[in-house]
Fold:
Amino acid sequence: MRRLDQLLSALGYCSRREAMAFVKEGRVKLGGVVVKRSDQRVDSALITVDDEPLEAPDGLLAMLHKPVGYSCTHSEEEGQNIYELLPSHWPERNPAVTSVGRLDKDTSGLLLVTDIGSLVHRYTSPKSDIEKTYLVEVDRELDPKLIDIFAKGDLMLRSEEKPCLPAKLEIVSTLSARLTITEGRYHQARRMFASQGWHVEKLHRERFGPYTLGDLAEGEWQMLSLEHVPR
Ligand code: URA
Structure:
């Protein structure tokens, strides 16, 4: 049980002071009954604001179909950022909603966002074996020899000390392939191809672990269930 004002402010609804106004205006109910005090301890599952249940009171996990041209940063200095595509109160939550790892500005596709710190850690830790699949378009005809080169686990990227872990490459057409990697090194997919003399023209993440974009349109987000998420 948490104090109502703390709960509303942690979920990004309002400041603790504003919670008093919410209560005075009769906007907050507990089990259908208007709450009288903002310092009352409450069960988040029973609270409604404007007759709507609280948004993700036990942690928020969503996926965004990131378009090209958006940075995964909270800073406004790098042009458009992904937070412009998400509800504006999400970064106001405490903990704030952040992306699980990053996609380059020029990369599109599936990006998870969450306020669950342990999840960010689990999915981005170097020990994580979560598979990420990218659709890659390159500048010249793909050579099947890349399949073995990426699969071997001895590919060294410039200025790195350890080779890349084995990666799966499936050639889709002359100029496109699907690459599945478990790591998330800086610009990894682009650098893997560059190391062999190919330039990546387009990069799109289709899958992150168990999640795929389905028919989620570019620029749109969708809430995900926490049911099967290890905590
Ligand atoms: N690899 C890259 O090069 N860029 C990304 O955004 C993701 C993987």
